[in-house]
Each structure stands twice: as structure tokens, then as C-alpha cells.
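haha ok so turns out i had the wrong file open the whole time. this is the CORRECT one, sorry everyone. sequence first:
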Amino acid sequence: MKRALFFAMEQDTLTAFLVEKNGTSCTVKESFPVSAPGGSPSCPALPPDTNGEVYLGIPLRLLNCRFLEFPFSDREHIREILPFELDTLVLGGAAGVVFDIFSIRESNGQYRVGVAYASKESLRPLVEAIRTCGIQPKAILSLDLSSFLSSSGGEEDLARLLLDPVPLTEEERLRAAAREMETPAINLARDEFACTIPADRLKKTLRLTAVLSILLLSAYLAFMTFTITVTKREIASVKADIRKTYAALFPRDTKVSSELYQAKAHLKELREKEEYLVGIAPLSLLLDLSAVSRQGVAFQEITMDRERIVLKGECPSLSDVQLLKADLEKRLRGVRISDTKTLAQDRTAFTLSALGKKQ
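then structure:
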């Protein structure tokens, strides 16, 4: 079921008809006058279920028809040339009328094109009366012409009908309305009478899309700003942790420009010294020294590498140095006294060396 609002002239009164189409038949559900000569428009409420299906049907007395010949049948091409043809046929020129093509028939190698047109001056009061109500006709058509085109009448019959219009019966009018709701035979809603509702809807849609796009972009920018701020804070925190860890590992470095670069430099130094450190067990040596330690013996300096161990310290006497050497020989290889020196307060400084730990 499809519903539409038809405006038509009824005895010089513009009347609105609410038409309901069910299949191929139509019925008038409601009708009401819109304007009469000299009166102000009485605006009907546009039913919401018509979905903008609004039509203006004009009487035959406002319509004129011409048949022209063209060597081609392309409708758009013909439409481009018609204004120049009508300029010589219509009083006042093609600029004062709106036209549409209602038929194209081949005849003797040429194409007979039927053109219907109406003066803008005659249509303007009708369209303005409807637009005053906030309604725009989707199409400006003629039910009389539609009814004639559905019959088998020729060009001469159409000319007689235009000169002496015969009113349609109610049944003929409804059948024509049903056809026009599907595919209008002509549509004079062009130029200044063109329906702008789709364009207005498009503008509203574009405005809404633009607003939503701006809101979405603003939300995205806010999210990106928040993310960048949080990331910068995290980076600053990580840098602070790296600097703190570096300072704990290398406390002697007071001037730090790049923790990563300087840490790599320290690692490179450690790799270069790796061959000197591999195989050295300082904890094991300290355990051995604690085992042979005697009363009054103090180790002040211990130097150890892969080939040699040097022990420096103090003890009460030279005999204590000899006893310490004897104890170390049980645990280390090649122990010897490198140097001894008498100190004040009856103390003796010593230097012992060894080749390494016994296996």
C-alpha cells in the first residue's frame, strides 16, 4: 500500500487529495480545499506515511504540446536541443516555459518527439500556494495527458483534446493517478519549480556528518593528547630509573650525558678485561686466608689475577711471617716471602706471593 498527496484544480480551487494506492487501483481517502481565487492558502497537514510523495496535477488548459522531429532518439541530447527549438515556436521564448518529453516514436527514419510545456507564469501561483504550506511537489504532472497517452489516440486526437478538454471521470482520474505514482508521464518540476527537499535533506545530512566528524576528531585529538602526555611521563620516569640505576652501578661517573652510551662503554671495558677475570675465585681465597689467620696478623692488601696472588699485611714478628707462610703452603702453590720490614711498636710488615690455589 502506497499513499500520496495530490494537488489539483477543481473549479478554480486548488484542492488536496489524499490518495491510497493498493496494487493497480487507487482510492481517495480524504480531500480538502487549499486555496480559492483571491483567498489565502489553507494548509493541510502532510500525512507522515506519504514519505514526501506529493504531486501537483495541472489541467489541460495550462498545458501545450508540440511534436518535433530529430535524427536521433537520445532523450538527454534532445533535452539539450529543445530550448533552441522552442525559442522559435513559443511566444516569449523557451526561458518562459518548463517542458518535458512524453513520447519518442520513429517515423520514416526520423524520430517524432512529443513535448509538453507550460508557462512558468501560470504554474507559479499554484506552486507558491503549496510551498506556503511548507510542502514541495515531487512532480508537476497532468492526469489528463496521462489518461490520453494510455489510450490509442494520435497526434490529431491530442490536438483536439487540447482545444476542447473533456473532463475525466472519477474512475479514469484514479487510474491515471495510480500510473503517475509509479512513473509520471511528464514532470514539469524543473528550474525554479524543482523539488529541493532531497537537496535540503542532503544538506542536513552533510551538516550532521560534519558535526559528528568534528566531534569524532575532537575526541580522537583529546585521546591522542592524553596518550602523548602519559607516554611522556612514562618515558621521563623510565629515564629517571635508568639514571638512578646507572649512578648506583657507576658511582664514580659524575658527568653523565647518555646513560646508555656510557653503560655500553663500561661493558666494552669489562669484556676487554674478561680474560683476566675468568678463572679467579676471590671468595675461595678469602676462605683460605680466614682459615690460616693467626692472632695479630692483619691482611691490608690482596692482589689476585689468574697467574699470581700477592698478600700484604702486618704481624707481631718475623717468626709469625714464617708460620703464616707454612700454613699458606698447605693451600697455595709457590708461596714465598717477597719482602719483610720492621715497623714501630714491634710490628713487622710483610709481602707474600703465591702462584695459585692447589688443585
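The chain has a mean pLDDT of 84.
again sry for the mixup
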